[in-house]
Amino acid sequence: MLSDIDICRTTPLSPIDEIAHSAGLESNEFQSQGRYKAKVSLSCLNRIKAHRKGKFVLVTAMTPTPLGEGKTVTTIGLAQGIAKLNQSVFACIRQPSMGPIFGVKGGAAGGGYSQVAPMEELNLHLTGDIHAVTAAHNLAAAAIDARIYHEQRLGYEDFETRTGLTALRIDPKQITWKRVIDHNDRALRMVTIGRNEEGKTINGYEREDGFDISAASELMAILALANDLQDLRQRIGQIVVAYNVDGLPITTEDLQVAGAMTVSMKEAIEPTLMQTLEGVPTLVHAGPFANIAHGNSSIIADEIATHLADFTITEGGFGSDMGFEKACNIKAKAANNSPDCAVIVATLRGLKANSGLYDLRPGQAMPAELFEPNQAGLSAGFANLQWHINNVSQYGVPVVVAINRFPQDSDEELQQLKLMIENLPQDVEVAISEAFAKGGEGALQLARAVIKQCQKNSTFTPLYQTQDSLEDKLHAVAIKGYGAKSVSLSDKAQQQLTQLNQLGFDKLSVCLAKTPLSISTDSTKKGAPANFDVPIRELKLCAGAGFVYALCGNVMTMPGLPDKPAFMNIDIDSDGHIIGLS
Amino acid sequence: MLSDIDICRTTPLSPIDEIAHSAGLESNEFQSQGRYKAKVSLSCLNRIKAHRKGKFVLVTAMTPTPLGEGKTVTTIGLAQGIAKLNQSVFACIRQPSMGPIFGVKGGAAGGGYSQVAPMEELNLHLTGDIHAVTAAHNLAAAAIDARIYHEQRLGYEDFETRTGLTALRIDPKQITWKRVIDHNDRALRMVTIGRNEEGKTINGYEREDGFDISAASELMAILALANDLQDLRQRIGQIVVAYNVDGLPITTEDLQVAGAMTVSMKEAIEPTLMQTLEGVPTLVHAGPFANIAHGNSSIIADEIATHLADFTITEGGFGSDMGFEKACNIKAKAANNSPDCAVIVATLRGLKANSGLYDLRPGQAMPAELFEPNQAGLSAGFANLQWHINNVSQYGVPVVVAINRFPQDSDEELQQLKLMIENLPQDVEVAISEAFAKGGEGALQLARAVIKQCQKNSTFTPLYQTQDSLEDKLHAVAIKGYGAKSVSLSDKAQQQLTQLNQLGFDKLSVCLAKTPLSISTDSTKKGAPANFDVPIRELKLCAGAGFVYALCGNVMTMPGLPDKPAFMNIDIDSDGHIIGLS
């Protein structure tokens, strides 16, 4: 089989204006960005809002290996399969981050014959939305340090006289807004900034800071959760970046930087229209990383797609404990929209990896035996898939399991897994998907199963309500959403919880950051762990995004590069074509 | 008069494909990026290279005030004036940096009725080239720290066994590649990275680092100086990022990251086509900052423009000691192309500011008296303009002085200045430009003067030759190019010079970073200082760009935000339009 990039390059694509028109957009509702991308204007919603809303399908997965189990392949393949059944359909996915692309995991365009194209444009800068988020985020960071520097340099009174502004008296020890960069850069996790060379004071004042990957920026969450430009502006102004010397919150509005941040994201709020290899319209919008962010693409894109098509297929990052949980408990509330059906992607590889019978280490290649038939491995790992089926079912959403076939998989073992799922007591549909090798043709069975489940009534129920206390919300996610036994807050987190309650931020949702490689917060616990504790080491207020962010276990918000990163394979050839991107 | 952004918004623009076609590009030679921008494919050069080359005009200036004297206004106005005289013409300018836009100076689209439009797209992300440079730069930085981390973690031998790579044995004390960000962020000038929390070693190793503004990245220089994609790839691979424990240079090629960096800049190498308010095609490409970079737009854009039009108007940043010097001594050599005429922009305000009679402080508003007629101020400041006329003349390039009129300027004083210039012994043309208030119509006199001077033979001579020693090159720029008496190298710079000579990098050009607010390296020395010394505190090898970079005086490669930054005025209004951008 050809490489992903070669398949993509040799598949003829339609001009993006043809895709846009056939998807139901009018000429003044999009602007082409080159031949195969277009920015979709939010003004289209004024026209199409009255349309009947199509079905909304959320693709999730069992607990994945570090390379992923093919959720995007399945999302794209399913959309292509539905199109082959003559239903109108959109795929809605997030923009890939350059961190994984140059690190270990590689691109995020899907793969094989189920890709968003051109994959190199999707995987690299696309239309610059992540850069816009990064720029707006770091502008606020520069604004904080400049403000403290000038207030300290001049003294509060002189500062006020000279500038006509009110001194903000920010406490440099209570700055919660870090900086971001869209790379895996371990060395920037913890930094000291404003460092002075002996005798020089040009940098102002020294303090501890750190960089997160851009996907973890609150602005990325806001981009996904905003309903329109004015909502974006308002949410940005609510961001709390620090506390002053009296312990009161300081917002970007206080810094008078919220307007400029919004201006910097004015183009980013428009979803980017692309196409799959089979010409299915695909909206790409907002950020990835369901482990350290909410990990779902945007409400705006879903809104446009569901008002234009019979079916909209989107995905939430990692397993159903991760992006799916956040789609249901954070995004669905902000969108006032919930899934009509969930697809859980499972693979033979993923089941075996969850059996506990293999020696899997992060950053290491996966053992070849993982692809060999292994009855014991399959059975042991099946508990993980069962857990995810039960988990999704508790939200009241009809379930389809998609067994994503890898080329190496044996027919016999695939059929065996299918039978195991069919024999479950739950009302679950199952289909083997060959979307990778065969495109939409390989996903027809899956498409039929999804259409069938979409006819059922979804009785969607999130895990908690707005009026619940923050503590109850954290418990709801950990205990009902992960199956944990208990939650323990560090002293720091406990203090932060008290402060958040005092400041009146108790009506927000909660967004837990944890490893995606286990249902628990310990990546080595495979299968369906139970009786575990969820240790929360720190809480962060994301008042603009509308949630309190909880860091669980030793999860890190800035990945590192491995010893032999993927960037080593990437280059241009003598014709100027990109090679090695996958 | 309306604000810049209101003028821009109320002026009807042509669709960019009409601009492209009327400029002589064929449909397959550009890709529209929205309605008013297009990326121009380098493949057009294959077709047009055989065309006769048009005249190449370089706009420079007297020593400016911190707000600039209107070089871009004059560049755009002149191009519009030439178009009104029925000559085919292109403007070629650099992409603005977000640092000054959100800091003090504001946008860089020109102003009044001589702007590149839409100004908000030009001033913000445009087509993402600066972001691509930033991303590629920081990928290399992450690659360096990750490599050292893994080599130290595993030990050289185990690293080699495990990865199959050769250990690079980079000396963490000799890393010359910093990180970059496109903001004014004082706090990032000097940082400690890889800092560990007590007991934790997840970040690897701690070291001193710093951030430059993206415009100062060697990659930005490479983007401007590369002739095509393969040249870009080769130059990127030649970048020296560090030295190993034996003192030998380590390149991005050694890190196997040069290919991925090139891939990240693959779209950035295509210039962005826009238009002026009067429909003159404008190519926007590469980075600004002639103080801390070479400060000129790209060779590729010039090459396309000069093969399509009778006249190409471009600009070099700041005064003729800055961007113009680098255009002549660095860019002209790499391009094998030199200016046929230079325009020196002068203003009444600028002359008075150079008189030494006013109390001007960086970061403070300029005194209102600067706009009142003042015979003594004009006469005293005239020495600065004379210096720049002599400076440009020594390169053998015919000169036009453009007096850029501000609305407040008196007719009488403008005529007086014009007469003073006409009375000079040099063969200089002079014209008052009202390009700001009247567009091309206000620049007709200037356009005629430029066309006249372009008929003369330019006898272009750079200040030094390739075979000259690095020391001689530094002296040539300081003594011939600035009028200094002497050059002193710090001990550090002297050691670096010795090392560069030993390593065989003596055939490179030199790029001096210094204040743009004086011809000397001391920003307080106004007018035409003489008998000064140029202190060089540090040398940096830019082997990919093809020059040795010299830091003079106390010049800083990362600006800071002022106490009341421009971002405070920028916002969206209730219709979603940008306000406050200028």
UniProtKB/TrEMBL annotation, chains A, B:
| GO MF assignments | formate-tetrahydrofolate ligase activity
Pfam families in the record: FTHFS
What enzyme category does the UniProt record give?
ligase
Report the EC code(s) recorded for this entry. Answer: 6.3.4.3
Task: Name the Gene3D superfamilies on file.
Answer: Domain 2, N(10)-formyltetrahydrofolate synthetase, Formyltetrahydrofolate synthetase, domain 3, P-loop containing nucleotide triphosphate hydrolases
Source taxon at top rank = Bacteria
Which pathway does it take part in? One-carbon metabolism; tetrahydrofolate interconversion
> So where does ATP get bound?
65-72
Provide the alphabetized UniProt keywords. Answer: ATP-binding, Ligase, Nucleotide-binding, One-carbon metabolism
* Catalysis performed (reactions): (6S)-5,6,7,8-tetrahydrofolate + formate + ATP = (6R)-10-formyltetrahydrofolate + ADP + phosphate
Q: Looking at the keywords, is DNA damage present? A: no
Q: Which family does it belong to?
A: Belongs to the formate--tetrahydrofolate ligase family.
Q: What is this protein called?
A: Formate--tetrahydrofolate ligase
Report the source organism. Vibrio nitrifigilis
Q: List the taxonomic lineage.
A: Bacteria, Pseudomonadati, Pseudomonadota, Gammaproteobacteria, Vibrionales
Give the gene name. fhs
